[in-house]
Amino acid sequence: MSFDLVEPSSLGEAFKLLDPDDPAVRPLAGGTALMLLMKSGFFRPKRLVSLRAASDRLARVRVEPDGAVRIGAMVRLAALERAPELRRGCPVIGQTLRTLSNVRVRNVATLGGHLAHADPHSDLPPVLIALDARLVLAGPRGERTVPVDGFATGLYETQCKGDELIVETIIPPAGGKRAAYVKCTTRSADDWPALGVAAAWDDSGGTIKSPRIVLGAATEKPTRLAMAESVIAGHGLDDALLARAGAAAAEEAEIVGDARGSVAYKKQLVKVFVGRALRAAQARGGAPA
Amino acid sequence: MSTTAKAGQIGRSLPRLEGRAKVTGRADYIHNLRLPGMLHGKIFRSVVAHGRIRRIDVAAARQVPGVHAVYVSDDIRRVIANPYYGPAFHDQPILAIDKVRHIGEPVAVVLAEDPHVAEEAARLIVAEYDELPTVTNEVEAMTSKVIVHDVLKPAGTFPDLKHLEGRKGTNLALDFHLRRGDTKKAFVAADRVFEQTFTTQPVMHTPLEPFVSVAEPGDGTLTIHTASQSPSFVRIEIARLLGWPENRVRVKAAFLGGGFGAKLYIKLEALVAALALLTRRPVKIALAMDEQFFTITKHPSTFRIKSAVGKDGRVTARECEVWWNGGAYADIGPRVTQKSGFTAAGPYDIDNVAIDSYALYTNRPPAGALRGFGIPQLVWAYESHTDMIARALGIDPVEFRRRNLLRDGRPQATGTVMQDAATGKVLDRLVERMGWSRPFDHGRGTIKRGRGIAIGFKASIAPTTSVAILNLYADGSCALYCSTVDMGQGSDTAMAQIAAEALDVPAETVRVVHPDTDVTPYDMATLGSRSTFHMGNAVKRAAEDVRVKIDVLKAELGLPAGSNIPVAELFRRKYGMQAGNIVGVGSFVPGYASPDHDTGLTPNATPFWMVGGTGAEVEVDTETGHVRVMRLINVADLGTPINPRIVETQLSGGAIMQLGFTMQECMEYADGQLLNPNLADYKIPGMRDLPTRIENETVAATQASGPFGAKGVGETATFGVSPAIANAIDDAVGVRLTDLPLTPEAVYRVLAKGSR
After folding, report:
1. Where are the extended beta strands (E) located within B673-753?
2. pLDDT above 90 (res A100)
3. Where are the beta strands (DSSP E) in B336-415?
4. What is the pTM of this model?
5. Which ranges constitute the DSSP H helices of B285-345?
6. Is the peptide bond prior to B36 cis by the omega test (within 30 degrees of 0)?
7. CA B288 vs CA A31, B30, B70: distances in Å
8. Which residues numbered 667-686 in B keep a CB inside 8 Å of some CB on A?
9. Which chain A residue has its CA at the smallest distance from B689's CA?
10. Percent above pLDDT 90 for chain B
11. Least CB–CB distance from B686: residue in A40, A188, A259
12. Mean pLDDT in residue range B139-154
């Protein structure tokens, strides 16, 4: 197998090297997923466009005046795990990252690659959706911003066009939000999750405002559970409410069975873990406003 | 003989002799070996589980620049006329001939100077098959119309396989039967009868160093460098395949990055030997991790067990029927079937026993020995069954075991009288450590707690031979030549300690020469926890031989026998300068009596018994079925530990390995394909899967016939892990699992069905 590995020094150059019509030409970020696909022979590249030197913007984490955090696509997950910009306003990201794969992968994998790969088992998409995060996509025709919710359109499929790149992820100011992510592995502690649930809401004097409950891994793409959200909106958490939210979630989620669990078993897990995610969010409390 | 000797080399927790070399990356492994002109081979494998080969098209692969050659079975036959190998049956072709019998079977091989070129070219090979129906379940294989091998071809090594020669229309590669007493009568007279069926899943050894072998052709000779647990066997089998005398085949082994029974007999050695002879160049094949899953596995099994119990809570009869899924090639499966068959009824004193143990061919990758030689599969069934009986009778599981335990001086199912088997002590220490008599907190809410125990035993594989040479040099230093393979179990250190004790020198000063069949003498293999006992005895005898020869030399020099003149001085006096050697030789083969073909009975089934017990405390999440092992206690009888620290790591290592086979590992098949031949989807335990606490204990015991009272330890801690955990789950939540692995979903499903 021979292929070209190119390292453009600007985004413009990168767009020229990408080819929307050729699936054998792909951008390369951390490569943790791509290398496995190449090793197995599943992906045989013609050209890999490394984004390592494409733009400083891809490598930065910065806080906007309003408190929103912009994370460059090439920021390593390990760096994000320790990013002071997030630790205070958005601790749920660091908490999630500590259980994402292992330290060797986190040292190499990037946030942009994590999202662009659109593996439904990824941990961060449900969290980012729960936080109403958005993505800045750039291409030869300019930039556009899309919500993370809906960015993944299916298994390994996204709204990103073939010559577009994720440039940044924007997490809105999370002041006062309660948020948590819990996941369940079934084959080993460090396995890909059988399911992950992110929950976040604005706490308004003990009642839940604008809740987000997002299910990952058990579905084809990370999915907001609207019925479960409406069950808890406007209420205070108690055991009965948790049970109703879990039941609603299990009913509405379009669960996919796999080696990590059958559909029936994952439904049970959804029921349980929606409750656990809500409880965890409640317990962890909001970040200081 | 030396005044610098430390007192007592036995019982010393000497750090491993090779530890520093390993952690600093200086230790030699076959994977690092590069020879001038060496070619790299990549195997093209079958994607169908059973089929006639219609066509193999290697044209495109041959055309890849850098490819030296592409070979199929016809090419192999140019150098090896009858290219079938195997320790029990000559049933396995070096490359598939006419038929393929399992997924991943080697069909062709590409040779190139660059391993990546070979790999790339192998992808271009196209094979067409007429697919045949398959048989994959061991019980179905007994009666299936699908026959894996048209004719059975026993190797002739084992007398109990000879009657299978030429047999047709069967998948049965060995049936072992044991009949003791009168089970029929006992079942009629029984107060209660219990019967259950248990199964185990297909799993793999997962040595982190995958298989690797290099063959180097010489002038009428062949040298094979291989990560093998059985260099002596490799030499004998390669010599047989080539029709050469043993002295033209040289086999060298290095440290192994794990073996666990995978790297036994012939794996890649016959293939690289044939390729080296075809090309007249050194050839190396190093498997990738995924290829290991197609090479050798652990037997899946089905075990039907039935017990008769009297009013006094004594088991009066036990009937065992065990089916072993041996896969497409027998490997050592028939020996697993027979040897484990000896003890299928468990470490209990039962007057009436019937055991039927069947080795079966199926269209699955071959199964062989894996850390326990079938015993963990059996203990899983008989110790789950034992617990179920105790619970049904309302007798405490410990008390029930005590009432029925097989103790020294009593005949075991084969009729062999138990000797130096500390079953009682192991059970007692286990129960004490667990605080069994104290009240136990069974948890609350959705987290329930439970505890369970299990005890198993094993007859060592017999009869087998070990030979050792101890070479004393003229300056008084010495080297130990033995073919035991240090695959991580610490045998170099243990053997050095045994030699050192016998010679009265510090163990650190004994140099251990690694297996090289031109240099080191015969050893059957490093398997079945046999080395400490067998090779240990041979080493001790070799050292004693040296001492005798020193005394002879002293007498020759007119010195009194008790004189403490340094050895170097003896040599100087004898030869007039620093010159000469004293070569001590020791060989050991324990007594053994083959079991009677019809009754399975024998007065001497084994040279020693291994006894292991495990206690587990678990937490069960009743909402999800997740089980956390909070405490895992392993208690073992291994005679006198040669090196207590290494013994401890062998116990915890064995237990953790079996924990993986208990809780999580499973080769998953769908539509005939293996779904998870990689470490991303085949999950061995990681640090976060380990029990919160692991405790290991060696009971005070002596194996009188062992070297300085020692016997083997490598497998002992695997015995009881699976049933101890299932028994603890039952204690926690009142449900019983009978199929491994105990995944959260499996636990949740039985929970959802409702407790008894």
Report:
1. 673-674, 693-698
2. yes
3. 352-360, 367-368
4. 0.96
5. 289-292, 333-341
6. no
7. 20, 14, 19
8. 668, 675-676, 678, 680-681, 683-686
9. A189
10. 96
11. A188
12. 97
Q: What is the mean pLDDT of chain B?
A: 96
Q: Which uninterrupted H or E stretch holds B324?
A: strand B315-325
Task: Assess whether pLDDT exceeds 70 at residue B284.
Answer: yes
pLDDT, residue A205, reads 84
Measure Cα distances from B345 to B87, B278, B305 in Å.
27, 50, 8
Structure tokens that stand for B529 in this block: 């926890």
Q: What average pLDDT is seen over chain A?
A: 94
Alpha-carbon B559 to chain mean position: 49
pLDDT band at B33 (very low <50, low <70, confident <90, very high): very high
- What's the start-to-end Cα distance of chain B, in Å? 68
SS3 B649: helix
Choose from B659, B663, B683 for mutation: most chain A CBs within 10 A.
Answer: B683
Contact B685 A188 (CB under 8 A): yes
pLDDT score for B162: 85
In the block, which residue shows the tokens 């070619």?
Answer: B39
> Which chain A residues have a beta carbon less than 8 Å from that of B748?
265, 268
For residue B718, the cross-strand partners are none
Interface of A with B (CB under 8 A): 1, 36, 40-41, 184, 186-192, 259, 261-262, 265, 268-269, 272
Residue B745 has its nearest CB partner, among A188, A190, A261, at: A261
Q: What is the pLDDT of residues B92-144, one digit of tens each?
A: 999 999 999 999 999 999 999 999 999 999 999 999 999 999 999 999 999 99
Query: Which of the following is catalytic: B138, B209, B269, B715?
Result: B715
User: Minimal Cα distance from B682: which residue of A?
Assistant: A187
Beta bridge partners of B696: B634
Query: What separation, in Å, do the N-terminal and C-terminal C-alpha atoms of chain A show?
Result: 54
Pairing between β-strand B39-45 and β-strand B106-112 as defined by DSSP bridges: antiparallel
Q: Give the CA distances from residue B689 to residues A188, B406, B490, B630, in Å, rounded to whole numbers and listed in that order.
A: 6, 34, 25, 11
Q: What is the pLDDT of residues B348-399, one digit of tens each?
A: 999 999 999 999 999 999 999 999 999 999 999 999 999 999 999 999 999 9
B291 among known catalytic residues: no
